Batch of 4 targets.
Target 1
Amino acid sequence: MMKISKKTQYGLRAMICIAREYGAKTPITVKSISEKEAIPFDFLEKIVSRLEKASLVKGRKGVQGGYMLSRPPAKISAKNIVSALEENDAPVNCRLCGRKSVCSSKNVWKKIENSLNSTLNSITLQSLLK
Amino acid sequence: MMKISKKTQYGLRAMICIAREYGAKTPITVKSISEKEAIPFDFLEKIVSRLEKASLVKGRKGVQGGYMLSRPPAKISAKNIVSALEENDAPVNCRLCGRKSVCSSKNVWKKIENSLNSTLNSITLQSLLK
DNA sequence: TGAAAACCGACTAATATAGTCGGTTTTTAT
DNA sequence: ATAAAAACCGACTATATTAGTCGGTTTTCA
């Protein structure tokens, strides 16, 4: 249940790759990540570009270009990554339920959302490098 | 992200309806649940039949038939309900990853799964009736 | 100046979800 | 007995989401 999309799985793995190079002079290319991680290049490009829009990585164009973290790995959480890649970040959007008052179940989904967020917030990229 | 399916949302609401009648002599019909909760009848029938296969409810055919809980609401958890309705109950199935050893991210998804399960296990139907 | 990279948007394919339909079986009230 | 009301069942369709592709433009560096 509640499948994590490939997009998000790939995105996290890509972030870990990029994080490994934190501090290096030259950025890492999408091509190299896609080879290392066996992720389709074109798809990965799109994913990384969303991570950039969320200011988690910075891109540099041209030869010797690529991507690097925009801040230290300790300052990037799994929640940051997941939020960057998924649009509706709540498991259940209660506005869509239509029967707000009747929906006795909404507390369940709210609890799940909270526990999910607190788990994701507690994990940093830093902690994943070890 | 990680959307809860309508199937599961409907299923939980149906279980709450059925639980409200716990102790009554006559069971509650799918028709009546579908009207109360504004859930498509045919779809709901399928959902409830899965809840029955998971032994969460018992059906009685014929006139005056319907469904009732198969055990007290305190003995049924949100996890029981969700598991009955979703096939792959883990957010990420690591066997599908294909690069087990390389998958540095699997601990993240495992943590999510654990926190999710412990949240769902901690919620009983009983607690939702109040 | 040419190659290598990011960057961009539109498209397609595959899969999963949501919902429908037409029936059969069982039970009960009349 | 029988008719109605319900569960029960499997196959089907429609819609939405996810995953992946493609063709191009722009920027940078050697």
Note: Residues 5-7, 40, 42-43, 46, 60-65 of chain B lie near DNA strand C (CB under 10 Å from a C1').
Target 2
Amino acid sequence: MTTARAGSRARTRQAILDAAFEVLARNPAASLGDVAAAADVGRTTLHRYFPERSDLLVALRDEATARLDQARTRARTADDTGAAAIRRLCQEYFDLGDLLSLLFREQVELDDESPGTCDDWFADLVRRGHADGTIDTELPAIWVQSLLWSQLYLGWSFLSEANASRHETLRLVLRCVEGAIRPLR
Amino acid sequence: MTTARAGSRARTRQAILDAAFEVLARNPAASLGDVAAAADVGRTTLHRYFPERSDLLVALRDEATARLDQARTRARTADDTGAAAIRRLCQEYFDLGDLLSLLFREQVELDDESPGTCDDWFADLVRRGHADGTIDTELPAIWVQSLLWSQLYLGWSFLSEANASRHETLRLVLRCVEGAIRPLR
DNA sequence: CCATAATGGAACACTGTTGTTCCAGAATGG
DNA sequence: CCATTCTGGAACAACAGTGTTCCATTATGG
């Protein structure tokens, strides 16, 4: 009985989330009316799915967390040298698009990492890079993590403003991240 | 007659601007009441100096432009190699503090440079670096400029969140900018 | 075809911000 | 000491965003 009903609900919900990502990434101060309009949905309907603004933000956070985890899995961060793993991670994260802006501007806060804290798995990754000589030992893990995010955000906003190709922009990001973290000479 | 009067006015005005930099850098959506409170000034007084919110933003933009120009002059961007000049520029800009956040988040837009456009003097600087071999020729000037800003913002937010020393943070910024822009191998 | 679910519009109260006016008190220069 | 200036609090209307309720309309499964 709930087959197509539930399907419809899920689809509407997803449409709202997708629109929210897009709208809030461009303008963090956008109103719920803007989000509803972008999702082609009445404001009433939006409130039916997400009673309060905070409910929407929580849902966005969960969605973001899930996608980040998927990207990390795809990047196989446990393989190869530290730098190579970071390079793959960079590529996977880059495809997340609007998510980057939201997370970077801390519109949507991830629960497991307060600002100034580094993910454990990422810290391990950097340590591996320190050990195998592909990441400068002078750079702390938390710094490398911040650097990665800032470069991804840079790439994404570059893509939006300048009319550069996605491919070329990704190349620049990878090039600069690699140069920034590898040991000098 | 207007000696101390004008002095007082200038002092109040400056206090408001300083507070606005600080408050808006931390929270771009801060209300005028917040700014007034931070400046230890009644909201009425704030409106007396800056009738509308936009007037305050214009004043902030002018102040920012002036300080940026001063920093650029101090950095003597016409001397040395391209990379060395960028390094000095980085050092000078880094000291601008809250200004960085505001400019980077585009709360305050500079008039002479629309997003996606590169300052002429900066483009020349990068070209010089391309020619003297200290900046990778694969990196376009506009990208280097964006990179510089994103790294400065990174450094500044790192300073706020992590409890790192100003000196150490600047070292990390300079280290990573240099690594990012110099030619590989 | 019909009952149920989903939707969107209209209207409402509530809140916080903005910009304004008015006035009384404090500070300052002469 | 007095006149001028600067200040800040109170009160106000206007406005935008939020969250809610109610109702009519549209789909959809059975």
Note: The longest helix of chain B spans residues 3-26.
Target 3
Amino acid sequence: MQGEPGWELYRTFLEVVRDGSLSGAARKLSLTQPTVGRHVDALEASLGLSLFSRSPQGLKPTPAALELVSYAETMAAASAALRRTASGGAKADRGTVRVTASEMIGCEVLPPLLASFRDSHPGITLELALNNRNEDLLRRDADIAVRMVRPRQKSLVARRVGKSAIGFYAHRNYAEKYGLPKQIADFEKHCLIGFDRDDLALRSLGKLPGLVTRDNFGFRCDSDLAQFSALKAGVGIGGCQHNIARRFPELVPVLAKAIRFELEVWVAMHEDMRSTGRVRLLFDHLAAGLSAFVRGVGAGG
Amino acid sequence: MQGEPGWELYRTFLEVVRDGSLSGAARKLSLTQPTVGRHVDALEASLGLSLFSRSPQGLKPTPAALELVSYAETMAAASAALRRTASGGAKADRGTVRVTASEMIGCEVLPPLLASFRDSHPGITLELALNNRNEDLLRRDADIAVRMVRPRQKSLVARRVGKSAIGFYAHRNYAEKYGLPKQIADFEKHCLIGFDRDDLALRSLGKLPGLVTRDNFGFRCDSDLAQFSALKAGVGIGGCQHNIARRFPELVPVLAKAIRFELEVWVAMHEDMRSTGRVRLLFDHLAAGLSAFVRGVGAGG
DNA sequence: TCCATGATATACATTTTTGTATGATGCAGG
DNA sequence: CCTGCATCATACAAAAATGTATATCATGGA
């Protein structure tokens, strides 16, 4: 319970929590297991509490330790952001930019946009973090976010690039085998593809037909990309953005007239990034490219 | 431009920026000047850019270095928050809680509340950070904030404890010497006490009489507490919360009928803190005590 | 049951980091 | 102009952190 622990100890601590073992953390940190063990000992001594219950199977964090994890993660995110900012020095066309988006956007929409950006700015390294968490920008887990909901935080610069319409689709093999619903009530006889536990994703879609609920999903998965793969494999009927689905001729629209909803598409970055050349460059490029995407032109369409 | 710099280097870097010299930073960090110098060298080598221009008068950060400061500050705030959370272990009535408020609230209103809290919970250490920045909670610079504006961030738990009415006052010596204005137009002949550069503070007061602008202030200071001291010293006419001013019999109200405005009083904490016993204890205590304060009872009234 | 595997803990050698002492330089004041 | 005091830079010794090698224990599969 003495002076402030070295910040190194926090880094080690975080990695041990993530990894669940001293040995594993040591490998990732390019240290050795005894060193990592000593770091944990030192941090426990310094904070005056027990952080892990040790066992031959690994280290299990105590409840007290779990409370501290988010702070260590904040430090890690800030450290990574600092390094990105430092990369490339002052020059606008060098360095690293980190983008976050959903898996679907990241795999189906962004790649051609990022490719053309790299063509124009070969000195800029791109990082792509695919997930559905919305707090990434505040914590500086990423420099730019492409999201389907309006960012609420005040310190973000957000631009709405348009709306992307969504409809239901099925693979043509599925349609041949099982037929297609003529009306929404027919959904009960079909296999719907939808989210598993991520009801936030479901709710963010806004109003859906009554039958489109978790109970009626015959295939559930929280990865929108895996849902799309299942759709393409003929598992069942699932939602998809029109501008993506149209690239796959084997996908046939389902009840296109009856069901139609839209998601807004937003690009956002942290306020402080406005003056960082390379981030601004990519921000504008993505805004333009996504705008073309939602209008149905370009982006591989 | 090699691997990730040790987090220790960031801590040293931040202290060198704040201090402007290797020697000064060394003193604060309980290191020595050569060590601090080596840390800076190592960080520059690792990031691949020049961070300071060295001189016998100290080190001046380069523009590139200044871009990185906020990230290092985020790390420092997270580190401090981690240590506060770790303090006291799991027990609700031990550990450290950090409160932020304006100087005025912190000096005139909170002390008796904090005193009674300490009486009930002697095991809890209190920290008080007085300033007018509103982002403190998000960055975890503090655990609880007492503010006069509604916190906007989604991840905060905020409670409005009431409204505090404000009016103009002057010291009775001033009134004897210069008389008191009979109407707002008379303000021109008097010395008004107000903010210097902090127009945010001024604007947050809402609608003010037309003559209460920076140009008409005969005494300008961004510290509300120093303004209050000037008011008590008879410098001029200034605004003050009624519930504070009434404790000082030598202060006489000015145009109390004609001018009256109110500020909301809010207590806020980070969502994650709700489950941290000691923070919750103080949050509730402050909410109750401030509620009594705005109603004009207790708090030394 | 026995062995292979992967985990943590400990003992000792090595490397790295830090501190001490000193020198060089620039500014402020008499 | 010189002196006092602050700064940063450098050389060498001491201390601390790290790595290597090994022991010990638990688990899972043949």
Note: Chain A has three domains: 7-78, 86-162+264-294, 163-261.
Target 4
Amino acid sequence: MLDINFIRENRDTVITGMKDKGEKETEVVDKVLEADQRWRTLVTKVDQLRSESNEKSKEIGILMSQGKKEEARKLINETTGYKADIKEAEKETEAAKNERDELLLKIPNVPHESVPVGFSEEGNQVFGSWGEPNQKDGLKPHWELADENDWIDFERGAKVTGAGFPFYIGPLARLQRALINFFIDEALAEGYIEIQSPYFVNEDSARGTGQIPDKEDMMYVIPRDGFFTIPTAEVPVTNFHRDEIFSMDQLPVKYVAYTPCWRREAGSYGKDVRGLNRLHQFDKVELVKIVRPSDSYEELENLRSYAESLLQKLELPYRTLLMCTGDMGFTQSKKYDLEVWSPGQKRWLEVSSCSNFTDFQARRMMLRFKNDQKKIEILHTLNGSGLALPRVVAALLETYQQADGEVAVPEKLQPYMGREVL
RNA sequence: GGAGAGAUGGCUGAGUGGUCGAAAGCGCUCCCCUGCUAAGGGAGUAUACCCUUAACAGGGUAUCGAGGGUUCGAAUCCCUCUCUCUCCGCCA
């Protein structure tokens, strides 16, 4: 959610930002401003009425305590009319506020000036790359390797739950556990605090990080209890500090959290969803930062390069994309995607997405801090995957497959696996 | 799942219809005093929003778990919900 005062003062910037993100209905900006103006006028009116009414009530109180019943009664009769007036004005105010807030939720975060303008994948810029993508023919895709060795069971997963809910068996189950531990240990060495979160969240939390109303359909719902299964640890972990005010010495806050993630992925199909490329349940180690506004873009670069370092340590070639305005999310101001090379499929697979949300999430969550002048300010939030497991596993299997049919274990993972081949 | 108790400011804790955004204590900040330390004295110390102001600041409204109701007036009375604690049951 953007600051209404920011919109008032930067109407054109907001509209340009919306257009750059591919949002057509930019007239909401003026509608918001209109509703806000109406609300302000009404608030002033309500406050005025309440003030008068309070004044009279206070007088009545004084008269009563002095035993002047008759005068008090007279005043009570005069005051009765306020009730209806206030109620009426409150109703209008509430309506205007709701209208304003609903419209406000439809306005996306403004892209940072360093973000390239573009409206599709083509607009993304290759920010950097590492390693040499293996273009050799004849390398097997991970699903073949997994199938030949009975490492992943998609069919039984489909029987037990549904498509996109695979079982991992034997060495592959262990490989996932090794990756989780490896990722968490690396983050701890970088000063992140490990945190374990609930896997279900309530509606307020989903709203806080912006899954509602923008991306409601991505989440599984548990209607009886009003819960959503988390699509990413970002949701519970960022909401952890909802409604809190930090002091300067508590910042920045850095968390690393491993959780499963559930995504409905409605509308996905084709070769994109083959094997481990796209699942309804997957494991991810997530990094969340809560930082001072002045530091957030620098922190984004740190986050990006940290995520990159993980792929380097696993010796998996990758490239980093700076996402263009149109391919970034509703809530982000700047975003990098890390894509690992999949030699068996000869394509890039997204394994991490590092984003700066500036104050967009924090405002809705009332996530604030007291600055040097003891003034309250909204914080900035960031997050990034460090990393998402399935595609790392896919790239790893395909990259480390050997002529003899075995799959080697990357050196850094060997202590976690206790062996050199899977 | 059954029975009971409770929810007040950073913390502890008073307050059962009127000048209560809320006593007191603790903590914290600033000042004074004291050659260090300890003790003492004074002032201050929630959040959101609206209005006025270039700004400093000032005025107003709301908030005592949440929402609704009664009343001229609610922390205080009524209803609903949530959460916490104790006991019983069940259980990884």
Note: Residues 39-40, 43-44, 46-48, 50-51, 53-54, 56-62, 64-65, 72, 75-80, 82-83, 245, 366, 374, 376 of chain A lie near RNA strand B (CB under 10 Å from a C1').
